[in-house]
Amino acid sequence: MRIAWIGGWGVPPEELRPLAAAHAPDAEHVITVPVTGAPELVAGCDALVAWSLGAHLALEAAARGVRLPPKVLLIAPFTSFCREHGSCGKVSETQVSYLRRWMETDPSSALADFRLRADLPPAESPGLPYPLDELLAGLDILAQPAGVSLVSFARGGLPAGWEAFVGDRDPLLEATGVCESVLGCHIVEEAGHALRDYLSPAS
Fold first, then answer.
1. 166: part of which helix (H) or strand (E)?
2. What is the distance between the alpha carbons of residues 42 and 117, in angstroms, rounded to a whole number?
3. How far is it, in rounded angstroms, from Cα 87 to Cα 90?
4. For residues 195 and 197, what is the distance between their CA atoms, to the nearest angstrom?
5. Which of 190, 168, 153 is nearest to 55 (CA)?
6. 124 pLDDT band (50/70/90 cuts)?
7. Which residues contact 14 (CB under 8 A, 6 or more apart)?
């Protein structure tokens, strides 16, 4: 089995690999960063796990008619990220814009601050998790309201073979609002934004 993973903003792919291996040790894992076009690259896999910005990109691609793997797991999904643009987010558009400007001048500090606010552990290695232009492009996506097609797709209910979960302790997302926007999403008690909160090792 080949499982594709699309990570969250600012998180290096290698950080997901041990989680993926523990979750499905017998599978081949294809891990990519959350950039435009990422969902199109994983269509040949048997399953997709998409987290945060990755989950948003998967929803957006599906709304455009992109054929995704038959099994899809969305972790901490959202339609629009900023709180001004819907009911999913706790973060303001101003905060995202500030983070983008900070990334252009002191990316290491900006990334460290983001991880702290998202309640993610400190980065395991120094340096950028992936190229700066892709990080900035991700923030541009986060700052924009969702399009009509994405909103309609998400409110229409998850397709067969899809699952979605968000934590009631997510510091970035309003769990109730996410479930209203992504019909079929379930709230996980005591879970935050971190991917590890949702993945149990294979027994």
1. strand 162-167
2. 30
3. 8
4. 5
5. 153
6. confident
7. 31, 124, 125
